[in-house]
């Protein structure tokens, strides 16, 4: 550990006194933490890496060679699958054990074991939404298949081999800060980790907000402001694609169906900004004549990184990419024949049902014209320093009734309606590991299509490219067969017609192969145009990123990997292009003060790029947010009746095409406001706010400083995150960056006789803040550059910059 890190670590116990006393009620044992023989000092890692090492592990069948390149990325060379996944588990734990432990404890509702009573409501929430229940179901699916069973057991054994090699002295530093020790890994933990990804990408829901809106404004206004298809769209599957199948009969909306829930439902709306980009170009558009694939999944940024880079080499497999620490295989990556990348679909696979209980015992509920028995699941929650708590969760056939009475101080609980049952695809048996098992070994388009048949959740747009010059994209997952808009509002839990009516056949999921435009792409926008015969969801992410990607790719020719790297950091805003013509002419220049006039001049000259040094980008971003607030807040913010605003797309349509719409009047004032009034107020408010916070127009107003992107530690431990990163991008641009959300992995792959991969993520391979490989890639990531990815053919491949070797033997 360098001296700066050591000094930071010395300050941590002092900084944690406040944090632990106020948040968790626990204080780390300072004497143990500072002990020179077993405390945090032992977590120092030298800058010079040991050249070679060997370890004897009884869990392997044959010798495994692991080569570490100059960024400490392991390249595993095994002679069989069991040893391959054993070694993957071992090296992942070697670099990321605490991260794996913390993430699965969080997901499983087990933080109280570590931090005490202050985490009890969070633990209850995780148990009550059925995270462990869903993981148990998924594990059943994994263990039923011989390949995935062997995969997960070997990976688990590798993790435990590393855990058992640890002494107190070389435990990861976070264990010393929080004063606990790792326990044995289990296959269930792998399943829990995958459930956590489903929760991150598909747990948001707007049906509670929408039910309140429907109740207040009625169906005509609701349909007008929240249409089933956006005003502007460029769908993932190109418009007018023919569907080469005979669809199943789609159930009709039940006659007289009541979509209104009784009583007020408290919630919050979905978080904007969790998205991703991917695209693949045919050889017809590339300089090499072979396809190129690019992917950058946008997630909450953390140190250690969400992803872990790795190469897996054994008979039948030679793949490179990123894995999820805690799950075997490669999630996003490439091999010698194919490349693949994913973005979130945002399919409607989570619904709440209003349940009619017979009495307050909640033992029976009315469904299908009779009283049915509920079941109870006992959740045992251990609490550090306190007695164990047993929480009883009531289940109907839909799923768990998350709350009968919600906790007061847990933000996560705000999106849970009281007395309603949760139907969530993540509770179903599944086996996503098989998808990645087959993709990692895939050779062609048919292998890609076969791999996708095993995939359930969270639904992803799988982009694909092969050395055979095939490209494709498929919104993939197990999609419920629903009537149109089923789940847009709270559903009636007494009527079987409200249940999911089956499943869309996997082969009928929307897909396109080798389209005439010679590229495929996705950016979380609508999966299809309205001609697709099934309902997937009524609302997706705004169209701007997807449209910008398609516009750029349409014009490109003789494309190289460098072209794709530049495109991934593109910061042009179609949002600004669409909105500014409707609001700039409405500014009354004579009514502005000197600062406001200078700001307006900057916005008028702006090229609509969210570059790091752009002052106009900061002004526009805050101006548009304030304007949207002015338009909607008076009608859509009512105490104890949570609702949401209409979409950005619908709001822009209103501004451009309905300038006299009644929504521009503030119903809370006696004056009748116009759009012009709101535009001027919001512009002045923005300038005044920026001036108050950052002083006169200057460097403080630059977009990078206002956006303040940084990468915090996973557990928000002081000193273990990054400082503010000076870079551009915004949620509405291809380079989708906000304060702590953005491209968690950027990858570009040029296929050919010898594939060439490039990639980077913010952070580093090691989870140890005292390691030189903890945060060594962040600067490169911030600049939008990518490293070479070494797809080595042997453990001594001269093409890679090898700095260390590890040999695993069983004797």
Description of the structure:
The structure is a single chain. The strands form 5 sheets. This protein has an 11-stranded mixed sheet with strand order 1-26-2-3-6-7-8-9-17-18-20, with helices on one face. Strands 4, 5, 21, 22, 23, 24 and 25 form a 7-stranded antiparallel sheet that branches. A 3-stranded mixed sheet has the order 16-10-19, with no helix packed on it. The two termini are 33 Å apart. Mean pLDDT is 92; it is low at 1-27, 33-42 and 258-271. It has 21 helices and 26 strands. The chain is of the alpha+beta class.
Q: Which features characterize this protein?
A:
disordered N terminus; alpha+beta; seven-stranded antiparallel sheet; 811 residues
Please state the average pLDDT score. 92
Low-confidence stretches: 1-27, 33-42, 258-271
Spatial strand sequence of the major β-sheet: 1-26-2-3-6-7-8-9-17-18-20
Strand content bin: 15-25%
Helix content: 25-40%
Radius of gyration: 27 Å
Number of strand elements: 26
Q: What can be said about the biggest beta sheet? A: 11 strands, mixed
The span between the termini is: 33 Å
Judged by helices, strands and strand pairing, the structural class is alpha+beta
């Amino acid at each position: 550990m360098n001296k700066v890190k050591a000094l930071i670590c010395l300050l941590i116990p002092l900084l944690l006194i406040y944090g632990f006393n106020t948040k968790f009620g626990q204080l780390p044992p300072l004497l143990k933490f500072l002990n020179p023989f077993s405390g945090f000092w032992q977590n120092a890692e030298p800058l010079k890496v040991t050249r070679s090492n060997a370890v004897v592990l009884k869990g392997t069948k044959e010798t495994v060679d692991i080569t570490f390149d100059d960024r400490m990325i392991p390249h595993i060379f095994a002679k069989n699958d069991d040893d391959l996944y054993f070694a993957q588990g071992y090296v992942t734990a070697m670099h990321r054990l605490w991260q794996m432990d913390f993430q699965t404890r969080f997901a499983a509702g087990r933080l109280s074991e570590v931090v005490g009573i202050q985490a009890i409501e969070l633990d209850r929430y995780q148990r009550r939404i059925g995270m462990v229940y869903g993981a148990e179901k998924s594990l059943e699916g994994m263990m039923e298949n011989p390949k995935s069973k062997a995969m997960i057991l070997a990976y688990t054994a590798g993790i435990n081999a590393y855990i058992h090699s640890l002494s107190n002295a070389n435990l990861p530093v976070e264990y010393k800060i929080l004063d606990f020790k790792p326990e044995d890994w289990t296959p269930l933990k792998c399943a829990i980790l995958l459930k956590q990804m489903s929760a991150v990408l598909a747990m948001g829901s707007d049906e509670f907000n929408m039910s309140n809106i429907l109740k207040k404004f009625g169906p005509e206004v609701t349909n007008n402001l929240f249409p089933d298809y956006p005003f502007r769209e460029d769908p993932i599957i190109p418009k007018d694609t023919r569907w080469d199948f005979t669809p199943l009969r789609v159930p009709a909306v039940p006659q007289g169906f009541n979509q209104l829930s009784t009583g007020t439902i408290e919630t919050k709306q979905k978080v904007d900004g969790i998205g991703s980009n991917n695209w693949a170009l045919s050889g017809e558009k590339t300089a090499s004549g072979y396809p190129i694939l690019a992917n950058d999944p946008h997630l909450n940024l953390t140190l250690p990184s969400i992803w872990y880079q790795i190469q897996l080499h054994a008979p039948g497999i030679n793949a490179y990419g990123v894995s999820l620490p805690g799950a075997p295989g490669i999630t996003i990556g490439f091999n010698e024949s194919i490349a693949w990348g994913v973005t979130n679909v945002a399919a409607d696979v989570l619904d709440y049902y209003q349940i009619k209980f017979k009495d307050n015992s909640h033992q029976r509920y009315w469904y299908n014209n009779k009283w049915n028995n509920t079941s109870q699941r006992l959740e045992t929650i251990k609490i550090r320093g306190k007695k164990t708590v047993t929480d009883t969760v009531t289940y109907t056939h839909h799923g768990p009734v998350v709350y009968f009475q919600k906790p007061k101080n847990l933000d996560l609980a705000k999106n849970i309606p009281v007395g309603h049952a949760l139907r969530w695809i993540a509770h179903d048996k599944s086996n996503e590991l098989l998808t990645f098992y087959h993709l990692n070994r895939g050779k062609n388009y048919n292998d890609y299509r076969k791999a996708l048949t095993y995939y359930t959740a969270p639904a992803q747009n799988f982009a694909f490219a092969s050395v055979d010059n095939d490209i494709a994209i498929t919104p993939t997952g197990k999609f419920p067969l629903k009537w149109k808009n089923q789940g847009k509002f709270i559903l009636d839990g007494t009527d079987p017609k409200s249940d999911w009516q089956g499943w869309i056949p996997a082969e009928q999921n929307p897909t396109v192969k080798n389209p005439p435009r010679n590229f495929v792409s996705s950016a979380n926008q609508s999966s299809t145009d309205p001609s697709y015969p099934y309902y997937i969801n009524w609302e997706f992410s705004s169209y701007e990123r997807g449209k910008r990607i398609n516009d750029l790719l349409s014009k490109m020719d003789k494309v190289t990997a460098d072209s794709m790297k530049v495109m991934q950091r593109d910061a042009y805003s179609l949002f600004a292009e669409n909105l500014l013509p409707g609001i700039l002419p409405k500014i009354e220049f004579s009514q502005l003060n000197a600062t406001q006039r200078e700001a307006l001049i900057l916005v008028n000259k702006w090229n609509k790029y969210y570059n790091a040094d752009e002052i106009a980008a900061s002004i526009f971003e805050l101006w548009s947010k304030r304007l949207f607030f002015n338009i909607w807040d008076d009608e859509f913010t009512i105490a104890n009746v949570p609702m949401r605003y209409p979409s950005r797309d619908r709001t822009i349509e209103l501004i451009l095409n309905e300038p006299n719409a009644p929504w521009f009047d503030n119903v809370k004032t006696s004056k009748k406001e116009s759009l012009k009034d709101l535009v001027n107020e919001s512009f002045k408010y923005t300038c005044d706010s920026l001036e108050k916070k950052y002083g006169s127009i200057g460097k403080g107003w630059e977009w990078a400083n206002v956006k303040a992107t940084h990468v915090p530690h996973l557990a928000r431990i002081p000193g273990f995150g990054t400082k503010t990163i000076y870079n551009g991008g915004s949620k509405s641009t291809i380079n989708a960056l906000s304060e702590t959300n953005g491209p968690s992995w950027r990858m570009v792959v040029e296929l050919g006789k010898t594939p060439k991969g490039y990639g980077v993520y913010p952070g580093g391979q090691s989870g140890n803040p005292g390691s030189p490989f903890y945060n060594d890639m962040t600067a490169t990531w911030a600049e939008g550059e990518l490293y070479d990815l070494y797809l080595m053919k042997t453990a001594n491949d001269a093409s890679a910059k090898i700095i260390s070797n590890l040999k695993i033997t069983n004797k």
